[in-house]
Amino acid sequence: MRIQDPRLHTFVALSSVLTGVETVQLFGTGQAEAYLVTLGKILPVALLDDLFKRFEALPAEEIEAAVEHQVLDDTRLGCVAQNIILMWYRGVWRRLPDDWRASFGAFPEDENHLISGAAYQAGLQWEIAGAHPIGARHQGYASWSLVPTKPNRRNTA
Amino acid sequence: MSEPAQYDVVIVGAGIAGALVAKRLTTAGLKVLVLEAGPDTTRSIADYTSHLETFYAASAKGAESPWPPAEAAPQPDGGDLFKDKSLPANSGYFIQNGPHLYGSTYTRTLGGSTLHWLGVSLRMLPEDFEMGSRFGLARDWPIRYDMLSPYYEQAEHEMGVSADVVDQRYLGLRFSESYDYPMHRVPPSYSDRVLGAAVNGMRVMVGEDSVSVQVRSYPAARNSIPRGSYQPVGALDVDADGNARRSFLGERCEGNTACTPICPVQAKYNANKSLAQADRRHLTLRAQAVASDILIDKSGHAVSGIRYKRYDDPGSIQHTEEIATGRIYILAAHAVENARLMLVSGLQSQSKKVGCGLMDHPALYVWGLAPFNVGSFRGPQSSSGIEDFRAGRFRTRHAAFRFDIGNDGWHATTGAPDATVNDAVLKQKLVGQRLRSHLEDQLPRQVRFSLAVEQLPNLKNRVTVDPSNRDKLGNPRPVIDYEIDDYTFKGMIAARKVALAVFRQAGITDCSSNAVELPFPVAEYEGEKFYYHGMGHCAGTHAMGDNAETSVVDEYQRSWEHPNLYLIGSGSFTTMGTSNPTLTLAALALRTADHIIARMRKHNPGIEPGPRRRKETQRVNPG
Ligand SMILES: Cc1cc2nc3c(=O)[nH]c(=O)nc-3n(C[C@H](O)[C@H](O)[C@H](O)COP(=O)(O)OP(=O)(O)OC[C@H]3O[C@@H](n4cnc5c(N)ncnc54)[C@H](O)[C@@H]3O)c2cc1C
Ligand code: SF4
Question: B222: Cβ below 6 Å to ligand 1?
Fold first, then answer.
């Protein structure tokens, strides 16, 4: 049995705020550990520790606004946080922008890639669309003829 | 050659054309060899699943992504078009001279391009066979709709096409009495239904004609609910000895939204299903055998053999050379490869038209946001179309067109949902609940139309070969000259206008007109830019006609110069019309098979007659 990374819960809690998707659903993708491993392979430990510490220090109320200001707006951590969102929604790692790499380091594994076939299928984008990953988890004969199940949550902002 | 031929018939290519002919000829008792360039990795569930895994793991999920070619049998790839922006573009399998890029591709793996086709199975319209006499354009076909109609019926049964005849009687399409498709129509998507409710019956002017618009379910080679005793054929599971194991997968379409590039359960037809129904006692299938040239006997006319290169390892070009002999030879390697094979063998034909008249359906995308959730990204990639502009008096002036109405959001156009997520996260800087709400709102409202536009045979559009430019195996690569002409551009303009009118009527916000720098080939006409894509509808390279001066093959797809040589497939199309070509090429292939059987029977009365008194063929999926 593998030893669970103690940072996993912090990572998923942060991810939940970033993606707008509940932690239980994130764990439900089966990809949480794989994504944390991916982060660890690409980025230095110190950077990840800073990210998680920054998040843990934020007040629980108004957490989304706090994450926006303290994490997303940070020139070093912001791009990494965006990449975490893309990882969850799409199952990919995006190469960090050139100016980020120039300032904070160009790491050899930091290249555009799909994390895995399973990560592709687990991408939140499909579920959020009320759909299924193209080529997998089909919804069954004639399901596409039915009224879409997701209520249309219009933007109120 | 004095030695007796090894086979009655040698077929080059195990795509749908080759497979249907092989099935019919072996059922009649003819001894058939099929040479297939690609590997035999698509007939067992285990092998097929590894292609599916390749697709899941691919970063770019293009039409060819599950079907990487063998080193010895390269194929064009959609990605090639952008590696090399200057002309001649030389980075992929094709060498493209332009002026416009030829955007279509095909697959060189056992089963051919039906592995990644979409499955749209429309018939050509009666008037499509008569472009010369009706519109003064190009030439008439040597056959008419009614001559092909019985073969359309047979092809629809061979392929397993789902549709209701009541939906399909339009613009002169006629069916024999009491005929219906083998399966009920695939249920239209929710978005088709709401779009139809909004626009059906609206009128649009095209030239002097006022045309009524109808969202119509199209015939699809995807398994649905069978009619009568028809038994849908699902996933194949053939073992190493060629025995088909029973499999229940894929007897219904499940809505994987992945017909292109790979139907996970094989609810969509692919050519291997037909090949598996051939009479195995009379069939020899040789995969990893790339035909390299056609040998002609001393008379200078009859074909005496096909030389081919056989490789053992798809990752290597190590090969041995062999010659296959038969009494009759059939090229079924698809439009570009058929022409390439003829030309490398020095068989130009008397008309000098081999390779000339290459066509496609250059297609535009128009996309927008529906006013409410229409449930995008569900179901087959499309299930309906707008067909009302496939015919009309305007055809004297510009191309006809049809719309395919997507169920897959902006997947094909912008690369959604990935592109939508990127835009939201990286450009709009959304996070958390706002991000989620934005995507929940946008993604299920995404709508796209593909506007497939007719193209006429222009002899300057052609496939040639350049002996100094070869693939790794040493076979000259196809060189392509291709230009979209005024007739098609004007059709594109009309098509776009109609599409935008339909959008307005349905309250769909157009998001395509201002899009710039799209990842598609681009052409300019009268100051306007057209981003177009190939539909995979390669055609016209060995067109049929009624004489040897103006055409390459006769109405049975038999070479005028080489009496024991047939060139089959969409290469034989005289004109293109607007229907996706495969059903028509399948019908033509069955007609050719019957003709060959009749011809062989004259010399050997022991051969079983054509389909009507055909023996029950071995079923792939028993029960
Ligand atoms: C993305 C895409 C979507 C499409 N969707 C549709 C659709 O919805 N409806 C429709 O009607 N059509 C569609 N098409 C077109 C359709 O796939 C083709 O019309 C059809 O598959 C052609 O059948 P074929 O048997 O003539 O050729 P293929 O299916 O291409 O088969 C030719 C076979 O010959 C083999 N071969 C090639 N060269 C050699 C050689 N030198 N020696 C030996 N073997 C050789 C190949 O490996 C292949 O197996 C689509 C195409 C694409 C690319
Ligand atoms: S929609 Fe899915 S199950 Fe149906 S034919 Fe296409 S890929 Fe196969």
Answer: no
> Is there a domain that residue A153 lies in?
no
* Contact between residue B18 and residue B271 where contact means Cβ atoms under 8 Å apart: yes
A 137-156: CB under 8 A from B: 138-148, 150-156
Residues of chain A contacting residue B409, judged by C-beta atoms under 8 Å apart: 129
Q: Is residue A3 part of a domain?
A: no
A76 lies in which domain range?
Answer: 8-145
Query: Which residues of chain B from 490 to 549 reach within 8 Å of chain A, CB to CB?
Result: none
- Worst-scoring range by mean pLDDT, B35-44, B86-95, B495-504? B86-95
Amino acid (one-letter) located at B387: E
Please answer whether residues B249 and B265 qualify as being in contact, where contact means their C-beta atoms are separated by less than 8 angstroms. Answer: yes
Are B420 and A125 in contact (CB < 8 Å)? yes
Among protein residues, the one with the nearest Cα to ligand 1's atom 37 is B333
Question: What is the pLDDT averaged over residues B458-472?
Answer: 96
CA B182 from chain center: how many Å? Answer: 21
Residues B361-378: tens digit of each pLDDT: 999 999 999 999 999 999
Q: Please provide the DSSP assignment of B444-464 as one string.
A: GGEEEEEEEE-----TTSEEE
Distance CA A8, CA B258 (A): 34
Regarding the beta carbon of B590 and ligand 2, being less than 6 Å apart is answered no
The answer to whether position A157 is within a domain reads no
For an interface test with A, give the residue of B377, B381, B407 to mutate (most A CBs within 10 A).
B377
What's the total number of domains in chain A?
A: 1
Q: Decide if A1 is inside a domain.
A: no
Using CA atoms, how far residue B539 sits from B131, B134, B161, B337, B570, in Å, is 16, 21, 22, 11, 5
Closest-CA residue to B103 (of B120, B123, B89): B89
Q: Say if residue B29's pLDDT is above 50.
A: yes
Closest CA to B100 of B530, B535, B538: B530
Is ipTM over 0.85? yes
